[in-house]
Amino acid sequence: MSVKTALRVHFYDTDTMGVVHHANYIRWFETGRVEFLRSIGITLTEMMNDGILFPLTEIKAKFLHSGKFDDDLELETIPVELTKVKMEFKYKIRRKSDGELLVKGYSQNVFTSAETGKITRLPEKYFSKLEQATVEEMA
Asked: Please, are residues 52 and 86 in contact by the beta-carbon 8 Å criterion?
């Protein structure tokens, strides 16, 4: 199960060369993770209220082509591994007008206790939703 999110390049997303500044792709990966979780019934606010944080431990981006101001983009967020202790995703950002693949990416988050700061296991109410999404991805 992948989740697709529409993005538009705003003027403030670009640099002095008129192209999307590289840091925005990392920000958009975050948008993809949030939308993926929302699509399976998990909100980050609820997790944080339950004392579960999810810091990034790894992030990668491969820049292939430049996005430009006012481009309509499509971000695809693809789960790689969703377990009781971590989430891993791949990302693809394409320009809608021509389907050009602009960026490929990867991220890993670990679930951490807000109280202790240590890695923690997700409660069943969250893990069951992640597990179902994994099953759907494999189908």
From this structure: no
